[in-house]
């Protein structure tokens, strides 16, 4: 089907989201950061919550059309994130056919790079996986795709391992994860843009610094670590965050994978024990199949040659977050070094399009988050650097998780400049 529509030269819009946000106006509430108080004020308002509970990033909600007047009459100080969330989702959601995948159906035997037009739109899960196969076909001597494990619904958690001239598994690792939070679509494609630039620099343009980096480090890149949640955002509810785990005796579906990593997992205040919460941590540390797969995979990589740099890519609000999330009074031993590099990264990002990223330890910079990836990867897998990067847009921009596709390339460009700076300085 994808082949047919591509050959005919037009794109089918992806399956209409079943949850409609048409006419929903999204706001960040600025003047009252007490979650319970805001919830009370909103008791007669029909809305969908778009933020997590204990947040210093601001409480964000999408107000249903019939409640907008009543909400505005409350007189809260707000920032408008989407005038019409449904209209912005429609603008974003025209998945263009992936041209390289057409080549790949005849096997990508020509050994070309995937078509750069891939980055002109967002993509369904199958195209994300195809993109990895195509990069691997382009770099047959320096890469292999892998499956870290299966999701709750049995989908592959698929990644690509890139290595330099000395072969696989000999050099310290750089691990990048995208789309742990299903609705954060900019993350998977931005990580793929970085992957594209590594492949292009290593083989096509002969970019010396990229060649040196790949000869000195092994990359393990998984653009979509939460495939079930991601598919759910493309087919059912664009604003879904968690995985799709159904638990006995619970009415709500889904565990927040970024509260389920088995380290300092149930520290009070850092996550929720309630299944209906957006930050539900699960019933036991690491009890999601996805996190079980990711911890196994990460430990194997760590055992091979250690982990130099881990990044868990999120959106939004333009932040570079270092450990720890679980506690505001505990710091990693090498915090100064991590902050120095995070600061350099922020500067390098800004030099491209002028976009500002704030950096700092997670708990002190945004909020307490326990059972998060970076704390586990730093403490247990003993990575030297373990960060969460929150991509575009900024918290004062007029978009949130739903970002027009024409921002994919600029996002990729600034992150690539940033990553190159890190490679040259870490
Ligand atoms: O709350 C989160 O999980 C992240 N923010 S988001 O708005 N994307 O949901 C921040 C957590 C950063 N910490 C780790 N990655 N551990
Ligand atoms: Zn996130």
Automatic annotation (TrEMBL):
GO cellular component terms, semicolon-separated: extracellular region
Residue span, Peptidase M14 domain: 121-426
Segment forming the signal sequence: 1-17
PROSITE patterns documented for this protein: PEPTIDASE_M14
Protein purpose: Extracellular metalloprotease that contributes to pathogenicity.
BP GO terms, sorted: proteolysis
Keywords per UniProt: Carboxypeptidase, Disulfide bond, Hydrolase, Metal-binding, Metalloprotease, Protease, Secreted, Signal, Virulence, Zinc
Annotated GO MF terms: metallocarboxypeptidase activity; zinc ion binding
Keyword field contains Ribosomal protein: no
Localization in the cell: Secreted
Protein name as annotated: Carboxypeptidase M14A
SUPFAM superfamilies on file: Zn-dependent exopeptidases
Highest taxon of the lineage: Eukaryota
Cofactor(s) needed for function: Zn(2+)
Catalytic residues (positions): 390
CDD domains according to UniProt: M14_CP_A-B_like
UniProt similarity note: Belongs to the peptidase M14 family.
């Amino acid at each position: 089907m994808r082949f047919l529509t591509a050959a005919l030269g037009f794109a089918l819009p992806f399956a209409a989201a079943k949850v409609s946000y048409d006419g929903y106006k999204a706001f960040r509430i600025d003047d009252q950061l007490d979650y319970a108080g805001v919830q009370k004020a909103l008791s007669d308002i029909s809305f969908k919550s778009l933020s997590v509970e204990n947040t210093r990033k601001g409480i964000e909600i999408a107000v249903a059309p019939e409640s907008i007047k009543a909400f505005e009459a409350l007189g809260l100080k707000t920032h408008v994130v989407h005038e019409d969330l449904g209209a912005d989702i429609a603008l974003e959601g025209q998945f263009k056919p992936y041209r390289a995948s057409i080549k790949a159906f005849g096997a990508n035997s020509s050994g070309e790079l995937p078509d750069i037009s891939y980055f002109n739109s967002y993509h369904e899960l199958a195209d994300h996986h195809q993109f990895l196969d195509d990069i691997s076909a382009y770099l047959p001597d320096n890469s292999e795709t892998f499956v870290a494990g299966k999701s709750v619904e049995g989908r592959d958690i698929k990644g690509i391992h890139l290595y330099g001239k000395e072969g696989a598994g000999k050099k310290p690792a750089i691990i990048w994860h995208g789309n742990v939070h299903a609705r954060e679509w900019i993350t998977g494609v931005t990580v793929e843009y970085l992957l594209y630039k590594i492949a292009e620099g290593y083989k096509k343009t002969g970019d010396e610094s990229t060649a040196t980096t790949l000869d000195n480090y092994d990359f393990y890149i998984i653009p979509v670590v939460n495939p079930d949640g991601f598919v759910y955002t493309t087919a059912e509810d664009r604003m879904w965050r968690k995985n799709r785990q159904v638990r006995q005796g619970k009415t709500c579906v889904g565990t927040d994978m970024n509260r389920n990593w088995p380290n300092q997992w149930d520290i009070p205040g850092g996550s929720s024990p309630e299944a209906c919460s957006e930050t539900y941590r699960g019933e036991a540390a690491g009890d999601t199949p996805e996190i079980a797969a990711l911890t196994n995979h990460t430990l194997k990589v760590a055992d091979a040659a250690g982990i130099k740099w881990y990044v868990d890519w999120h959106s939004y609000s333009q932040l570079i977050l270092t450990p720890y999330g679980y506690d505001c009074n505990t710091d990693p031993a090498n915090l100064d070094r991590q902050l120095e590099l995070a600061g350099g990264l922020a500067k390098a990002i800004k030099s491209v399009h002028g976009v500002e990223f704030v950096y700092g330890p997670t708990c002190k910079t945004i909020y307490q988050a326990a059972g998060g990836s970076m704390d586990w990867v730093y403490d247990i897998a003993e990575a030297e650097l373990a960060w969460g990067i929150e991509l575009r847009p900024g918290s004062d921009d007029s978009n949130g998780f739903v970002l027009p596709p024409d921002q994919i390339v600029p996002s990729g460009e600034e992150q690539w400049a940033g990553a190159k700076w890190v490679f040259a300085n870490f």
